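Bumping with the actual sequence this time:
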Amino acid sequence: MTNADWADVDRYLVETLVGNGDSQTLSSNAAAGLPAIDVSPPQGKFLYLIAKSLRARRVLEIGTLGGYSTTWLARAVGKSGQVVTLEFEPKHAEVARINLDRAGVGERVEIRVGAALDSLPVLTAERPEPFDLVFIDADKTNNSNYVRAALELTRPGSVIIVDNVVRNGGIAHADSGDAAVRASREVIELIAAEPRLDGTVLQTVGGKGWDGFAYAVVLGDDD
């Protein structure tokens, strides 16, 4: 099997199961010069279904880009829900706002612009209602910092998802010189060692290649 085969499967899934209603968002991102690092449509639908399964009403996203995954999450929380999404690049945030408003979910989404490591302490100090789901898809070297921050903003039963942790299989190599690979191993080992979390990693293939995500549940005293 090759990347071309995986992409063919993705296309079939989009045509038969996922739908391609948000293709304009991806086109707008490309036209604005944003990097093509959005989640794939099947992955976006998967995030939506996870949020729906959790009956999530509050979602925190770290890494907005052009708002493609944000749109899926905003649909999942419903009209009474909220997504708070953190984006470092002002241009990306501007594109995302246009995309979210066009998709009809803009009123459910708060975009906070700036470095997430600056925004997260401010958010924590506000003592918001806990988030049901946290999706982390930003600069990979800070993934462990983002998970630690997420633990302060969630509750038992909340889910934390970290995207792009398999790195084309790089995480199997402890001696890797790739900073993103080292960061992925660090966050996986953090989840393994953190008594407040129980998690796993699922490998994925598709049009975007070979990667995977970490999935962790926040535990309570009775777990």
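The tokens above came from a reply further down the thread. The two ends are 41 Å apart (CA to CA).
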